User: Which sequence fits this backbone?
């Protein structure tokens, strides 16, 4: 994750703010993505993922703070073909072949990727002669990926790239993305699928209400959110004082069971044993889902 001194980061946000009326869609984001990283931007609907990506691509300007790609303004990096993007909005699909479309886009950049290579990387070499308006959803998405690769970018930005794809198309898409990343390129993708972030990114940025609330590997996020969950049958007893026990961070009651999120499950279990609260006791590692919920609900409480 260390970047070479003197080399500008692929992506750099410093105190970036973007508001829509009273909504602070991006609320003071500081962020560095080093070259070669694959990073997931993970958040619920409306968390600020698309707005972050719009700022990153220079489609919208921050009201405060700065955004740079490779040390220059986003528009400049985009124009130079250093950045490829796949955005959410579906554009009208032209009646041309896949090869014609990718060639046309490649022709607009100063040093494009050879078309055959873009098609190969996107896994659609065999579709080159097919009409773009007659493809399946999964195939269309990979054509869009080839279009994003056409300028031979060092950074690719994907806004919820697999949102409408079935399992097989999704797997094929990620294979292509990883082939691109293995060449030392930088990838930033947004998603609200935790598993995708965990499986395909080196690093996960959790965004909530326009702020980065966590930044790390899936494993680091799991740990940050509270290592283990300790649960037991309440068996009629109250929950008073449970959150004050050593090692306990928070409490949730599900039916007859108490769920304690802990950062020291041993201490919590000993304390529960002293209280005699051990019926049906279980200790389980927190999942990434738990981590995500804990991270995003914690911020909700503080705003
Ligand atoms: N053009 C706009 N005009 C007004 N409000 C906007 C606009 N774009 C985004 N917002 C608001 O800014 C906030 C962040 O939206 P954004 O689209 O960035 O979130 P997101 O994480 O990409 O969500 P989703 O997963 O639903 O795409 C939301 O509250 C949204 O309603």
Assistant:
């Amino acid at each position: 994750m260390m970047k070479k001194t003197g080399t500008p980061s692929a992506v750099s946000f410093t105190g970036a703010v973007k508001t829509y009326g009273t909504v602070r869609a991006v609320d003071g984001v500081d962020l560095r993505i080093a070259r070669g990283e694959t990073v997931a931007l993970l958040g619920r609907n409306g968390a600020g993922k698309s707005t972050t990506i719009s700022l990153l691509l220079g489609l919208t300007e921050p009201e405060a703070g700065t955004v740079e790609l490779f040390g220059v303004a986003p528009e400049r990096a985009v124009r130079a073909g250093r950045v490829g993007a796949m955005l959410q909005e579906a554009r009208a699909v032209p009646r041309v072949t896949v090869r014609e479309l990718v060639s046309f886009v490649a022709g607009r950049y100063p040093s494009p990727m050879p078309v055959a290579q873009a098609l190969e990387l996107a896994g659609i070499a065999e579709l080159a002669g097919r009409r773009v308006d007659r493809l399946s959803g999964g195939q269309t998405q990979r054509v869009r990926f080839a279009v994003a690769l056409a300028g031979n970018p060092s950074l690719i930005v994907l806004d919820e790239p697999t949102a409408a794809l079935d399992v097989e198309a999704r797997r094929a898409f990620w294979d292509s993305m990883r082939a691109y990343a293995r060449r030392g390129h930088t990838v930033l993708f947004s998603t609200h699928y935790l598993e995708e972030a965990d499986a395909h990114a080196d690093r996960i940025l959790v965004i909530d209400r326009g702020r980065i609330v966590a930044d790390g590997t899936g494993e680091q996020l799991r740990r940050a959110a509270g290592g283990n969950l300790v649960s037991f049958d309440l068996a009629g007893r109250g929950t008073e004082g449970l959150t004050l026990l050593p090692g306990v961070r928070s409490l949730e009651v599900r039916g007859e069971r108490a769920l304690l999120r802990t950062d020291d499950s041993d201490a919590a279990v000993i304390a529960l044993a002293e209280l005699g609260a051990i019926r049906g006791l279980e200790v389980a590692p927190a999942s990434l889902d738990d981590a995500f919920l804990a991270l995003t609900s914690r911020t909700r409480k503080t705003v």
